[in-house]
Each structure stands twice: as C-alpha cells, then as structure tokens.
Fold:
Amino acid sequence: MSFERTIKVAFDKISGMILEANEVFETYESAFEIRKQFHKDEVELYCCECSQKLNVSTSKYDRLHFKHQPNAEYCLLKDSKLLPKETDELIRIYKSKESNRHKELKNKIARTLSKVNDISSINLDDRYIIDEKHKRKPDVFCIYQDKKIVFEIQLSDLSLRYIISRYEFYKRNGIYLIWILDNFDVQGQNQTERDIKYLTEYQNFFKLDEDTNDFRLVCTYKYPFLVNENILLTKWIEKSIGLTQLKFDNELYQAYFFDYKKKLDQKEKERFIKIEKSKKLEKERIKARKLNDALEKTQEIIEDLRNLWKTKALNFNPVKNKISELDEYELKILNESKAFEDEENEPKIHKWFSIAKKNNYAFLEFMLNCHSIEFDVNKKSKKQKSLFQTIFNNKELEYGKYLTRLILKRGYIFTKLDEEILQEWYPIKKEKQSEILLHYLSNKLNNRHLIDKLFEHRNLICTIESAKKNEIIGFGYKSNQWLAFANNAVHSYKEYWDYIELAFKHYNIWNKLIELDKKGTFRKKVTAFYKERPHAKYDCDLLIKILYPELHDENYCV
Structure:
C-alpha cells in the first residue's frame, strides 16, 4: 500500500482564495471550523496542481489536512516524492498565481493576442489540458495557425522539477510552452535562473512587452561573436518581437526567435576557418623567411666558391664550415641553385674538370670531398664522355690520377672505356694491373668510404685476387713464380697472413705451393711464422667480407 502525501495548499472555488494548510489548521479551533464549513458545502476545495477535488481529512492523532479524494488520478503533489523545499516553492507559485500582477499579465496577454492574425482560439485560465495521467490548466492557451501555444507566467522561483514537468507535459501533448519570465535576470545566479537558462539549447527568454498595445514579447537571447585573435565571446541582446517572428522547433516543441546553437556552430566554424587561415599565413610567413634565409646563405656560399675558384686559394675551411652549418632544407636550396645547374646539357662537374688549371686542383678536391653538395659523377658530358675521360683529357691537371680516386668515392662506376685510360696512365705492368683491379673492385662497394681502405691494402687484395684467379696480379712475378710470390707474402704481410692462407687454401693454391716447394723453403717460412706468431690485424675485415664473402663461411672466424 503506497503512502499518500498530505496536501499543503488548496483552492477554495467559492471564495476564490488559496488556503494554506499550515495556516487553516494552525489551531484546533480553526482546523475544525474549516472542516465544518467543508461538510456544510460552504467551501469547495480543489488541488492547485491538478484541479481535482480535495477532502478535509483527519488522522489518528486528530490532525486535519487536505487530501485527494479516493481514486483520484495522478498528481504531482499526491504521488511525487517532493522535498519539503520543493513543496514550499510550489505553494509560493500557486499563491503568486492569485496575485494582482499575475492576473494583470494574464489579461494583457489574452487581450493583445486577440489582435494577432491567425489566432483561432484563446483561453484565459479556463482550459484544462488532460492526458492519461496529468491535468494542467495553463495561464493562457491559444492556437496560432496550426500550433498550440501555452503561456505560463513566472513571478517566483521555480524548482527544476516543476520546470521540467511542465515542459515535458506540454511537449508530450504537442504544445509549445512559452514562459513569461517577469523578473528574470539572465545575468542572475540563483538556482531558478540557472535552471531556466540552460534548459534549452536556444537560450531565448521572454517577457511581455508592456510598452505597446499590441502583442509583443521582449526576447532576451544569447548572441555569439568573434573578437580580435579569433576569441569567441557571447553577449545578451534584448529585442521586441511579434508572434509572427517566432520560430517553432517541432521536435523539441520549443518556440524561439534566435537560434543560438546554429549561430554558435557558424561562429565556431568561422573561428576555425580564421584560425586555420591564420596558421596557414603564419606557416607561409615562416616558410618565406626560411626560404629567404636559405637563399641568403646559399648566395654567400656560392660567392665564396666563385672567389675560391678565381683566386685559386687553398683555404676552404671557412666555406666548409658554412656548408656544415646548413640544415636539410638549406642544403636542398643550395643544391637546387642555378650555380649547380647544367648548362646547355653540359653537367657542371664536367665543365669544372674540363676548364680547370693546375691551380684549381684544391677547388676540385673540395667539391669531390664535400658530399653535402650533390652532383652525379656518372653523368656523361654533352659529347658522351665519362668524367673519368674528362679528367684524362685535361692535361692541365697534374694530379688527375688522384682525382679519379675521389670520384670513385662519390659513387663513380668504373667501365671498360676507363680501363683504357689506366692503361695509358700506368706504363708499368704491375701498377697497371693493380690499378685496374682495384678500380673494378670499387664498383662492388656500396659503402664508398671503404675505397680508401681498398687502395690502402692494395698488396693484400692483389694477393687474394691472384689466388682467386690463379694468376699473379700486381706484383711483377712471372706466371711460374708462385713459390717466390708465396714466400714474399708470408714474409711481407705477416699481420694479414690469416686472410692470405685462407685464400690460398680456399682457391686451391695451397696444395700447388706444397707441390712446388721441393726445397721446403715455403714450409719453413710458414713454420717460422707460427712459432713467432706476430700480432694479427683485422682492420680490413669488413672489406674482405664484402669482396670475398666465400672466405667467411661457417668454418671461418678471424
């Protein structure tokens, strides 16, 4: 069995007064006086909320109170679990409805609505809206065009429960609720003001415009706007509007004049676009500054290089330092400058090497060693000559042979045509053989930093290569002097004998040497080597692994 709450306030239809339980039942005498009047039909009591009839009831302690009649329908005061504070707020609301100000506003709304076109019905405090459970009597009801609208006047603080229950009731019945907020302050901070303010996304608030004889509402609405630096702010604006200026949300059943959310979204979008535009402009400014700085540095470096070429100076450290200080973007601008562009299909690198004099050697050496400056050493000249050939054809270059070493380190691919140049450059057979061999082997080195190591270990490489090809290369020995070749190797390259012995055995030279060693000189040298066992060096191990991977199988470990 559910507990029915007592009713603290009732409306006496005969006197037209609101009776508050705390007052009429304050004393025993006054309580039973009102009970006597009720039973003599001198008072006719109704619920201020649902307008259903009330009884004057007593309890086991002879305490009198107002109470709904048996089988009464749902009522907020009867069935809801209202807090005492909320109940007190409702009593103030009901009492305010009988105030002169409340009656004045109701009458003005009804009177001025009657002048509005397309109004087909107006009810002033005399029409009940009823659904399955609830019953409401709005202050003013009207039908405007095809829309049902109720006006509820608010003179005192409202609980959030009351606000929501009214809104949901009218929404459920397809009716637009417009609160007439007589004393509402949008800047106020009391609970009712905050509850009403954030109840709707439109944030439009209305009061009756009493400065005109026509029906007009003063709409206070929040307006978003942008200020400097794309800061989004809002301000409250007041505007007097007619009923025809209202818009109606047929999903939320809310009437509004200004669509705050739509405008807010629009301003947010504008703000986003402006911020993005500002970011883009800033990026462009930064990019322009960066490009300008890079061009200035590039031009300074190019002028330095031109002066170094003209003056045939030897000190390249200042320009080297400037290049090393460039970041990746600045290096890109330097390499894209016209100073390094090809002219009439003639690569700049070919032009430099073709017109260089002996005093320009330092410039050429710097350019080849400066890997930050990009150019393709494998590009052919307009006469389809390789850079190797261009260097060879410039007889002014005294150290052309050394420059070819530098272009190998820049990634140059040695070809058969270049071999003919080496044939001419090195008249001594053993030098010719070793140079041609090392130049071809450089093609196998993706890590071009190993080029210096390759030429540094010229004799070791030629020894291993001789074993591999079964042909003595780069030493001047005759083809039948394998024993002398091996004796020299074990004597002269003791620190690297591990590699040489491994090569001799892997390429089947070892057995050949034992067979040729009739006097045992080779075996004696090997035996002496292992007795002495000098400190071995493995500084060229990576080079050997790359050029001769077959020597580094699972059975080998130096």
Residues 260-311 form the longest helix (52 residues).
